[in-house]
Amino acid sequence: MKTKMKKNHFWAFSVCLLFLGIGNAIAQTTESTKENRTTKEVQRHTIMEKFAPDISLTATERQQKRLDRIAEIELRKSVIDTLDISERRRQKLLIDLKYNPFSERLNRTMADIKFEDDMNE
Questions:
Q1: Predicted model pTM
Q2: Which of 36, 33, 58 is nearest to 45 (CA)?
Q3: Which residues are CB-neighbours of 37 under 8 A, at least 6 positions away?
Q4: What H or E segment, with its residue span, contains residue 108?
């Protein structure tokens, strides 16, 4: 009876170690850094360029817009980090900034900050 119980514990422990090992291996291969975000290439040609070349932007213009967006996100992140708000609200704003940059909560917070800046000048 005890040997069967020990074998079950051994297999359960082995399966747990297997899942932990796989999780660590996957986590090490999917690392995303700031340098990777800024150096990513934009498409040279788009489908829009094929049908309406006068409307679409060139590759350098798209790259510049992308860099401007990244700079705006970094600026907003630094502003959120300096606000005197609760940690819970700060985390919600940072999540909004990452996944939904046009959320109502984030826009309202940034509008309040700009309004306060205009009042001080």
A1: 0.50
A2: 58
A3: 70
A4: helix 104-120
